[in-house]
Design brief:
Blueprint (H helix, E strand, L loop, with lengths): L2 H28 L4 H15 L11 H8 L2 H8 L6 H58 L4
Helix pairs in contact: 1-5
Length: 146
Amino acid sequence: MDVDAWRERQIQMRLTAYLEQRERDFLRDHAEDTDDQLIACVRQRARELHRMPHPLELPGGEYLQQRLGDWRMLARRLGYPPVGKTRGEIVRQNLKEQIAEQFARERRALKAKNQQEKAERQKQEELHITTDNKVASALMGRVQVK
């Protein structure tokens, strides 16, 4: 099994799940919002970034694009230069790296837990062996060989 390919698939699956959940959450919370309210969400994020955000930089970015239309025209309407495709690639890569770091932390924690459990099992086995040897020695001392 190719561990790197497996790891990459796990990270990609987590990234996809994260983005889909973020979209669902935003839709749940903003489905009844007017276009002006949605534009205010984009405007607020643009102020925070000091530039027009890429849809991936917004919770609900896909929904916002569907509702508000062409992103380049929205950028002009808000007074920002349009966002290039490269920005989206950068944002996706940054999200992927964050998820990869979280995945690595989880794997290390699981590995440490497994090692601790293994050490505990070995300790218990050694305790049983020691106990069994003591019982056997005690029994041997009581039995007289003729």
